Amino acid sequence: MSHVLLIEDDVSVRDAMELVLRRHGHDVDAAGSGEDGLDLVRRPGAGGIEVVVLDLMLPGMDGFEVCRRIREAHTMPIIMLTSRGDDSDIVSGLEAGADDYVVKPVTARVLEARIRASVRRVAPAVRNREDFEGLVLDRAGLTVTKNGVPLAIPPTELRLLLELSAAPGRVFTREQLLELVWEHDYFADVRLVDAAVGRLRAKIEDVASRPRYVQTVRGFGYRFGPL
């Protein structure tokens, strides 16, 4: 099972979620504020944290800022919790670096499924090293370099890159990528795909607005180049 960091300020919600996660076999660290959560991420040995479940509406430092600060130094999956399902909150959270989201109240079954899916995204793939005109993917080691420079790519974006690059030239719809990478198919969640593509392009493209590797096929979805 996974080592989960839960950041949630509502004591009753936090205790209930922690209990459910522990019953499913996860190790859980819990924090009631963004500042306390960051302290847990930054402590010695915090590399053992595999997934962060992060409430967006926190007192003091909000979840958006916590997400951005975690992303400055860490690539573990971040699942954000939002109480309203508001589009602006969801988009802002994804742009801050979150990999997935769930709307509260969330059932134990859904949260557990999302955590398992996020962990599977970082599972090693059994394939060889591939060079796409300077963008080198090591599928076994799960590393990416560009022109010899290592790139720090969070697991969701890495899984997206691996799925697209496994079939260069093939057009994937957003719905197909949602099922392959996030392992769920709720139609409204296609915005997860667009946000992840945007973050990925910012890391691997020379100019994100003129992508060579991850190209938009208008009206259909995305394909992998390079062209």
TrEMBL record:
It holds the Pfam family Response_reg. One of its GO terms (molecular function) is DNA binding. Residues 127-226 bind DNA. The keyword Transcription regulation applies. The modification 4-aspartylphosphate is found at residue 55. PROSITE patterns: OMPR_PHOB, RESPONSE_REGULATORY. The keyword Transcription regulation applies. Residues 127-226 form the OmpR/PhoB-type domain. Coiled coil: none annotated. Keywords: DNA-binding, Phosphoprotein, Transcription, Transcription regulation, Two-component regulatory system. Residues 3-119 form the Response regulatory domain. PANTHER family: DNA-BINDING DUAL MASTER TRANSCRIPTIONAL REGULATOR RPAA (PTHR48111:SF21), REGULATOR OF RPOS (PTHR48111). This is DNA-binding response OmpR family regulator. It comes from Amycolatopsis roodepoortensis.
